[in-house]
Amino acid sequence: MKKILVLATGGTIVSTAHKNGLAPGMTINQLSAFFDSAEGPIDFIPLMDKDSTNMQPEDWIKMSQTIRSHPDFDAYLITHGTDTMAYTAAGLSYLLSDFEKPVIITGSQIPLTFEHTDAKKNINDALLAARTIDFPGVYVVFDGRVIAGTRAVKVKSKSFDAFDSINFPLIAQIENQQFKILYRPSFNPGPITSRTGLNTNIYVIRAFPGLSVKFFDFIEQEKAALIIESLGNGGLPSVGRNLVAGVEKLSQAGLPVIITTQIMNEGQDIDLYEVGQRVEQAGGITAGDMNTEAIVAKLMWTMRQTKNLSQIKNIMQTPIAHDLDHL
Q: Where is substrate bound in this sequence (predicted)?
């Protein structure tokens, strides 16, 4: 019988109706009443009470530190809002990349107290996952799907099947309280030098026809890292508004420019076209089949460890917590 620690952080799952709309409002005692402790002890910590839109990287650190400070539990379950759940799952995947116990994150599209809620099912599924999974890692459990934390992306705003596993197989499926493992991941903690630190001085921009090159000046002034959601397989314009020159400018200044694709599925092949090769030659660091949520969290984690551009490239292109190069 596993001993489970539940961290409550707010979100739709504990929201109630207020004058200005839904907001977290349930107490920890009200939430705990929906957890079945018949199959093992469950402890609860009301860690924070946030709409997940307000969740910040500092909150990921608080979650990871709380988990590490309670080592006597067999598994950990976090209730969380859906809007930034994928970012939190990715962030914890790096902050806890050496942690050898399962961490489960769940929430709901409809609050627990509403008649047609999905929260009760997700709580039961998450508990089953916490009690069944015998390998480490951070996992999102939602609508009967168990998804690796670095691969979860919210793809629907209202439907119960709100999360999908991008470019990676589902870890497990849960149906009628039957747990079926589909993919047993290996343990790959990667290079560990900073367990709890994050550097949030990064920006994300989506490439589009007509995008001005002026934002590169701002990034250089801020001495920040940049993630560009490129066109197609990694291409950026080099004719007219020359974004490739901007990539080269930042790279020569020692600032990392991560090149991903705004196309969610199937990753990127930056060498396929000339426009992509120019970006790579300018110093763009490719991100393979990673999703943006994982890239954001990994870059924050990496930049806390080093400011050396070649080291940043090496860590970003090293698979950690199943985040990269599955395709």
A: 52, 82-83
